[in-house]
Design brief:
This protein has four helices and two strands, in the order αβααβα. It has helices at 8-38, 54-64, 70-76, 90-101, and strands spanning 44-51, 81-87. A two-stranded antiparallel sheet has the order 1-2. The longest helix is centred in the first third of the chain and has 31 residues, at 8-38. It starts with 7 loop residues before the first helix and ends in a 6-residue tail after the last helix.
Length: 107
């Protein structure tokens, strides 16, 4: 099932997560560029984003014993969307974490 065959409520849920991921991804790309230009070391190797598919959400809710609804997806799943940042070294993770913490609009 694709996003065009599901209810408007599901579409809103997916759009909300897609827009949030895109906003954070943009901020991370800017941070990445800043590291490239201002610092000798760039901790970010690459960034990957994803939003779970309807089928994946459906399967996970059913496995947990919940009715498949957008409300239950929001309430019981904490991994509908995600961002993975790959760093070369463990110390880079902490450098990046500190840079992210200084962003006043990210939590």
């Amino acid at each position: 099932m694709n996003i065009y065959n599901i209810t408007e409520e599901w579409q809103r849920l997916f759009m909300l997560h897609e827009f949030a991921i895109e906003e954070i991804h943009t901020k991370l790309k800017i941070l990445n560029e800043e590291f490239n230009h201002k610092h000798q070391n760039n901790p970010i190797e690459y960034i990957k984003t994803r939003v779970k598919s309807y089928e994946s959400i459906k399967t996970k809710l059913e496995k947990k014993g919940y009715e498949v609804t957008p409300e239950n997806a929001k309430k019981y799943l904490n991994d509908i969307a995600g961002i993975r940042i790959i760093c070369s070294f463990t110390s880079d993770i902490y450098t990046l974490l500190e840079s992210i913490r200084t962003q006043s609009d990210l939590k």
